[in-house]
Amino acid sequence: MKLAGKVIIVTGAGSGMGREVALEAVRRGAKVAAVDVNPTTLADTAALAASGDALSTHVVNITDKAAVAALPAVVAQRFGALDGLVHCAGIIQPFVRFKDLDDAAIERVFAVNWWGTLYLTRAVLPVLLARPEGHIVNVSSMGGFLPVPGQTIYGASKAAVKLFTEGLHSELRGTRVHATVVFPGAVATNITTNSAVDIPISAEQAEAQSRRVLPADKAAQIILDGMEKNAYRVMVGRDSKMMDALYRVNPKGAAGFIARQMKDLLGE
After folding, report:
1. pTM summary value
2. Which residue out of 119, 154, 232, 247 is catalytically annotated?
3. Which of 24, 140, 210, 260 is packed most tightly, with the most Cβ within 10 A?
4. Does 119 qualify as catalytic in the annotation?
């Protein structure tokens, strides 16, 4: 679905990848309903867009089922239509093993990453099916197809997003609505801060990692390129592409490779 002239919702638009997707979509001629739980950072996104009437802001907690259900009507009233969703909002878990993770952390991760995805998709789908063309883009993760020790619950939530979106794609065959699942690798975002999670590594390790991550604006371009091509799946970053290929050939070996990379974070 080409973005020019379309109206889309972008979640997680207050920072990081979601913000860059919102800004890039406006640059491509779309009207964007920018959604985030943080009103301050959402206002910053609107200021960066400097787009006049092309971007509206909506403070919504995506775990609030009623608020999400009301969102499509609010967007349609603002822009006159709704053609798509790019769902970027998500959180990670604390970097601990499953046995050390409390119930509250587990439930919070699934509330945002799984139930938020379900609520948003259910809310927008009937609207999109009535449009000439529609598109749902859900962001999973490299951790949604490859196990990452210390992020097992996060990975499980993103694996649910993966299969849900792929199933949705199959169910939408023969309609005018497309579904795309996105698998980012390491992208420069604020997800750790937004998740209220500390990364237990040294400043030197953090600096080394920062040199390997993909800038959020580049990730946004890749995601929206995939959307405009009606891609089935979109791999974001060289690491995501490489690990996807390795995992297909040698799942156990790929899992072991990632486990070795995570030793420092898990204090081993």
Report:
1. 0.91
2. 154
3. 140
4. no
